[in-house]
Request: fold
Amino acid sequence: MERKGARLGQARISANGGALLRPALARLSFQSAREVLGLTHGRSAHAAGLVITRHRPGTATGVVFLTIEDETGPLNVVVWSGPVDSSSSAASCSGAGSWGVTG
Reply:
């Protein structure tokens, strides 16, 4: 796994500093990591956070494993080949930053 620094806009913000963004994220229907982890199986989830790890195993063709983190904790994400193959998403996936995910 790679540990990634995170950058939102021009300011460096820790995952705990993400609490400042929570009201705006909630208006966009993003749930916190804690809320997502509390959902029952089969429910839709919408989360956003800083990418803190990325792993693209050689044996898992077209799959990237990410860990995103918000002020409530980490959330593991599996990204399948569609988003990973597009040039803009591939660049975002390989670099540090923030991601919003739905699944």
User: Anything to note?
Assistant: The first strand starts at residue 2 and ends at 3. The beta strands are 2-3, 46-55, 64-70, 73-79, 98-102. The CA atoms of residues 54 and 94 lie 7 Å apart. The chain has a mean pLDDT of 76.
